[in-house]
Each structure stands twice: as C-alpha cells, then as structure tokens.
Amino acid sequence: MSIETLFATLEQAAEKPLESARAWKQAHGTRVVGSFPMHFPGELAHAAGALPVILQENHDPITVGHGMIYPFYCGYTRSVVDQVCKGDYDFLDAIMFGDHCVQVLGAADVVRAKLPGTRVHFYQLISSMSDPWSLGRARETFLNLKEGLEEMIGHTIDDEAIRASIKLFNRNRQLLRELYDLRRSGAAHISAKQMQLAVKSSMVMDKAAHNALLETLIGEIEARAATAPAGVRLYLSGHFCQAPKVGVLDMIESCGAIVVDDDLYHGQRFISTDVEEAGDPLDALAGWYLQRNLKVPCPTRVDQNADWDGYLLDAMKRSNAQGMVVLMAKFCEPHMYYYPLIKKAFEQRNVPHLLIETEHELTALEGLRTRVETFVEVVKRRSSTRRAAA
Amino acid sequence: MSIIIEPFAAPQKKANRLKTSSLNNKLVNSYWSDVFGAREQGRKVCWYEGVAINPLMQAADMAWVHGEAWSALLAARNGEASSQAAAENGAYMKELCSYARTSIGCSLVANNRSGEASGASFSDALNTGTLAENCPAPDMLISAYPYCSTGQQWDEALFRLFGKKVPIFNISVPWVWGNKKDAVYLGGSEFKEATAYMVRQLKECIKFIEEQTGKPYNWDRLYEIMAYTKKAGQLRMEAMELCRVKPAPASFFDWTTSLAPVNFVPGGPEIVDYFEQVKAEIQERIALGVGAVPNEKYRLFWDGIMNWNKIGWLANKFAGWDASMVAGRYTHMGFWHEYESINAKDPLEGMAINYLVCPINLSAPLMIEEIIKLCRYYEIDGVVLHAARTCRAFSNPQYLIAEAVGKRLGLPVAMFEGDMVDESFYKDEIVNSRVEAMLEAIESRKRMRAA
Predict the structure, then answer these.
(1) What share of chain B is helix, strand, coil (3-state, %, to 5)?
(2) CB proximity A341 to B under 8 Å
(3) Residues 391..420 of B with a Cβ closer than 8 Å to A: which?
C-alpha cells in the first residue's frame, strides 16, 4: 500500500469518525462507547470488549444545536450539542467521560437529556494533580468507571484483559511517536495535516487495526528516500479538545513554514505517555493520568509541579523550532487563563509567537493568512539577526 | 399617513426595597473595613473562591477575601473598570470569567506598583489609591469551586501570578451528576460518597490552616460560628418562604442584596439579628399588604447569577412592568439553604452537603426538579433567564430549564444576555423586548384561561 493510500484510509476514519465507528459496530458486533476529551482511559472500554471513540467536533454548520446552547461556547461544545440534537449519537451504546471543563459539562447535560435511553455516565477525575490524595482519588474514579462498564456488559473485566488493552494502546502511542520522531528529525516529510490524520484516526478506530496501518505506514516512509523539507520551523500549541481545522494547518504550511512539532491534543498531548504494563492495571492507569500532565502540562489541570510555559520553551528547543503558533479555540477558558503566562515567558526570552483564535466556522482564513505570512517573515528576520549576532 | 409607534415608556415606578437592606450595608462595610485592616492587626489573609468556607477561616482568626464577593463589591460601587482594564492589558481576555478578570486585575495593578509579584511586596502597594487597591495580598489561597472548572483555574492563575510563593490548597468539589438509579436530591450512594469525600478534604483543609497559622485549630469556635450560620440560614429561608403571599413582600433583588451575611460576613449574633429583622419587616409588610413592587401583576422567577452592576436598575425596571421577581435559583437554592443538615456540634458534613447542592453544582435533571418546586410554591407566571456571558456555570443548563418549565408548567420565558460584573455585555433594549414579549404571553394565557 502506498503512503498516499494509507493516509487516505486514516483520513476516512478521522474525517468521518461516527460513520467509521458505526461500520465497525455493524461488522464486528461490538459496543461503541463515546467519550469527551481529554483524559478518558480508552483501555478500560477496550478491555470491556467495546470500541472506545473520542467524540469529535465535526465540520457541519451548527444549526439545531443553537436551540440548546448559547453561542458564547467553544466550537467543540457547540458541535457536540449540535450532533446530539441531530441524532448522530443515537447508535452509541454509552457515553462516558471524566473531565470537568465547565463548557463540556454543559454539553453533557444536553447530551443526557437528548439520549434518555443511553448510558451517559460521568466519572469525575480529580483535576488538582499534586495533592497527596490525587493518585488515590484517580484510582477510585477509574475503579468506578470499570464498575460502570461491567454493569453495561454484565460481567467483570479481568486484570489480564486490561493489561492486554494497555499493551495494545501503548504500542499505538509508540508508533505515533515514531512518526513524530521521523518528522522532527527531518527524515520524513509529514505534513501537519497528515500528522493530525494519524492521531485523530487513532481516537476513533480499533487500535489493533490502527496499529497495523501505522506499522505499514512507517515501513513505507522509512523505505522512501526523503528530502528534508524546507521552510521556517514552527511549533503548534493549543487546541485541547478539538482538532484544528485542516484548512488552518494547510494555510500555515503554505506560508513558507513547516510544522515540526506540537502539543496539540490531536498530537503529542494524546500520545505522550504510556501506561505501566505490569502490576495492578488501575494503579497503572492512575499513574498514567498524573504522569501525562508532567510530560505535557495541561492548563485544564492545576499542578504545582508542572509549568506549561516552561515546557513549551523547552519543547521548542528540542524540536529546533524557530517560532510558535498558538491555536486557541475561541471561548476556551483554560487556555485564556494560561496564555498570559506563555506570552510573558516567550517575550522575556525573545522567542516569537503568534496567537490565532479559531472558531468552529472557518470564515476568516484569508485574513489569517496575512498574519501568518507576516509572522513567518518576523521569524525569518529574527533568526537571521540571531545567526548574525552569533 | 405615517404611523407613529409610541416608544416603550421608561419605567416610572420604583421597587419598594426592604428597609432592612441598610443594615446589610453596615455589615458589609464593617466586614471589608476589617479585611482592609487585617494586616495591621497581624492577621493572616486567605483569598478563596467558590463556596462559603469562610467559617473555617473565621474559627482560626484569619481574614478572608472571597474573590467573587470582592469583584461584586467593586462592580456594585462602580470600581471594577480599572481592574478589568488591567487584566485585559495583561492579556487576560474579555471572554474570561469577569469575576476572575476583576480579581486578577486587582492583583496586577498592585503588583505593577510594587514591582515584584510576591505576597510580601504586594502589601506595600496598599491604601494608595482606588478601592481596588485596598485589598490585602494573600498569605494563602484556598480554592473550593463547585462545578465550574474556571474557578479552580482562576486560583491557579493567582497562585502563579504571586510567583508560586503563596501556599495554595485545593478542595475538589464533585459535581452532583448521578450515574446510579438511586440518585435523588440530597440522596443516593454517589451523593453519600461525595459528601464523605468533601468532609475528608475539609479536614485536610483545616490541617493546612493549622500549618499556616501555626496554631491548633479552634474547633469550639467553629461550632459556635456554625450555630449562628445555621440559625441565619433558617431565618432567611423562613423569610423567603413567607414571600409566597400576594403581593410578595420582598423580591429576588432584595434577596441578592441579603446574600453577604450568609456568604462571607462573619458568622455571629449580627447575622442572626439581621435576618430576624428582615423576617420581621416581611411579616409587617404581609400584615399591611405591602408588596416588593407597587402593583404586583406578574410573579416571575429569575434564573442565573445576579448582574451586580444593575441590581437597583433591574429592580426598578421590573417594578415598572408591575412584575415581582419573587424567587430565583441563585438566592433560593444556595447559601445555607439546607440548614437542617447542619449539626452545629459536628458541622463538617452539613457544610459539605450545602456546598454540594449549591445553585450550580446539581446536574440539570436534579436542578430542574428543584426549580419546578419553587415555581409551583411561589405561583410563578414566567421565568427570566439571565445568561451571564462569562459565567458558563450558571448559563449551562438554561435551555434545558426553559424547555422544562415550558413543557411541564406552561410558563413562558425571557432569555437575555448580561454578565455578573462586566456591564458591557448587558443590552437594555434586548431586555425590554424579550421581557415585554414574555409579559404579553402571560397576559394572553391569562385571557385564554379566563375564557
């Protein structure tokens, strides 16, 4: 299979996630468990014999959803409400989630009201990460989730099944990280869009099937001699729940830039941390939950041991990026709280960054293009000044 | 021939506000004076957000600054603009919770003056200018935000703004969602577990307070404070329930101005005395047939948080429509409203229960049932839903509430946008047209029923 065909297969799942999940359900007779971003352990749902699917913002214009949610909510939340109002989630066997973003909680209430026959369950994850009881509380929450899944399937989930799922999911994360390594090192030219398709499809596809595709893809990429891509090296940061619109990614890369790394949820944030494969699986998942915030700090958590601004500066150095584009989903409060610290840290270190507010409706792309083109020029100039000074 | 449309007449009538409100102002002023002078008195200062955990601090002889109350005070006294501008200049965007923006803005103003983001140097900037600069810097932060993720992040933002030098304690308040079939208001296995989890955290919080003050915790003082708090809560609920009569002797706007004594004013005989006087005034009004509006024709329910810049304005506006805002989610479903659950000699569980069932922390099905009970009890004709633009916690379930009161009680609604302390989101003409449409609907239903 060619690289292009492989990406086309991933794109099919990534861009039509509900169609893909419905087809899988019909073909394999498995239950489908939807979840909201960002910290849901799909491993448990998988060990329960279900297909875990992270519900995505779709590309449809928001219509009937306007009748259930105010317009001053992020695109992800509004899109989820719109989808449930249109009946798109009717085929799901359950929706389970654990994150507490106030906007997502608003959507969750609407989702439950619109799906009275569906198991819509909330298992609230502790979001204060550095308390002495954070780990224990996270484990208790995952135990409750496991019991909820067991109630759904009518039997217990044994530890071996969870460990097998953990192994499978770890393999998936490792393969995706290999793709990142290939891009970062310049050994392969993987566009921002392609990288998103690889990660986003992982959120909605069966993991074994996804692993098989990734193994073939990596083999093909390694076999193909790549010329190092040229352009200003940019780092993308932000978007904790929804995938940035592909049009925005393509636009950025059409302005003389290449994206070399990111901390996007549909990116490094999703794949940063593996789960311990030995020992008690619930301990392992609780540990994973706390660890991943240290690997890639998340502004929806409060954690005295993690600094997102410092992480980003280091991450830029590691990936040899010259500038950072911050993609902030409009109305995203966690991002709005943390952005001033990032701005200050980057300005103090004289590292260029550009803030772009994104919306569900992709209406201002050409206006954004002018800003990105200008930013790319600024980055080029600063880089050449720095080289001259060195 | 041209058709002349009479513009809507500006409301001429004024709300008949409770006279005892002036006593509330005294309590509030005395409390803030005490806070502003806390540092001179050698008392530790705790900044906190969310539920009313102030009795925990009061028992330890600390001073406490409730972030929302501070922002609301500034807005009510037209002193919020400079802080909000400072926050925006510091890259905190306008769509962020305006309570948080105001509080963060105050910190930025003072930090900029002192030149160093630390609790110690912040105090150097005190008492030098506007009201916004009077608040003492924190010696510690406690976050206890129900439901709303943005509250916890606000405290974390302050923690980082003060250079991570001020100790912080986080109480994680579980949302009352209800996965299990036994979930009911105040009951069910999950609620029981959530209450126990809250009690564990409150005990840890008290240990944290002991560490910060360096003194053993004064449990007897807490019992005493909670006895007063419980009594004040009871008197307030009884006084509000008396407003079932027609005309209602006090309105939602009166109850919003009476929140301080059950939210952040010190627990003591003064708050009990205050609500005794409020209750007496209400009983007197009932005896005389005096209403909160001069000519009560419509009885309304207010859903959503208060617009603190506009309490008097809105009270008069609705009085002008002969509409009495008899009850509201904000005032009637929170602030020690479940006083019966408090055992003053062992108060942590009762405190936890009140925190868990505060007006934003119930998921929609449980919340809607409570709202419907209130609408029935107070014989409500229509529901006003104030969508606070930057308080999604309050705005979240409003379409579901509107749908439920329409379908189950046949009540028309008026939804409009505003905000708690950023008045730029309030659009008066939209309020006029939406409320007038609702009142028309109420009239037409009355006519249909009469026919």
Answers:
(1) 55, 10, 35
(2) yes
(3) 392-393, 395-400, 417
Contact assignment for B157 to A336 by CB distance below 8 Å:
no
Whether residue B278 is contained in a domain is answered as no
Q: Model confidence over B201-259: pLDDT tens digits? A: 999 999 999 999 999 999 999 999 999 999 999 999 999 999 999 999 999 999 999 99
- DSSP-assigned letter for residue A324: E
* Any A CB within 8 A of B100 CB: yes
Is residue B183 domain-resident?
yes
- Which neighbouring-strand residues pair with B324? B299
Whether residue A340 has a cis bond before it, omega within 30° of 0 = no
User: pTM to 2 decimals?
Assistant: 0.95
Domains and their CATH numbers in chain A: 23-154 (3.40.50.11890)
Residues of A in contact with B172 (CB under 8 A): 126-128, 131, 137
Q: What is the pLDDT of residues A202-223, one digit of tens each?
A: 999 999 999 999 999 999 999 9
Q: Are A128 and B170 in contact (CB under 8 A)?
A: yes
The answer to whether B397 contacts A109, with C-beta atoms less than 8 Å apart, is: yes
Return left, alpha or beta for B322; rule: phi > 0 is left, psi -120 to 50 is alpha, else beta: left
Which residues in chain A are contacts of B93 at CB distance < 8 A? 336, 339
Which residues 302-331 of B have a C-beta within 8 angstroms of A?
none
Secondary structure E strands in chain A? 32-35, 51-54, 94-97, 119-122, 232-238, 257-262, 323-329, 353-358
Dist. CA A160–CA A52, nearest whole Å: 18
| Residue A295: closest CA among A317, A273, A275 | A273
Domain extent, residue B30, equals 21-221
Residue in chain A lying closest to B364 (CA): A109
Is the residue at B447 inside a domain? no
A124 touches chain B (CB under 8 A): yes
A151 vs B: CB within 8 A: no
Is B359 a member of any domain? no
Total domains in the fold of chain B = 1
ipTM entry: 0.96
Confidence band, pLDDT 50/70/90 cuts, at residue B305: very high
3-class secondary structure, A128: strand
Three-class SS state of A202? helix
- Closest residue in chain B to residue A73, using alpha carbons only: B392
Instruction: Give B307's Cβ-side CA count (13 Å radius).
Output: 27
CATH number at B62 reads: 3.40.50.11890
SS3 content of chain A, % helix, strand, coil (to 5): 55, 10, 35
Q: Is B170–A131 a contact, with Cβ atoms under 8 angstroms apart?
A: yes
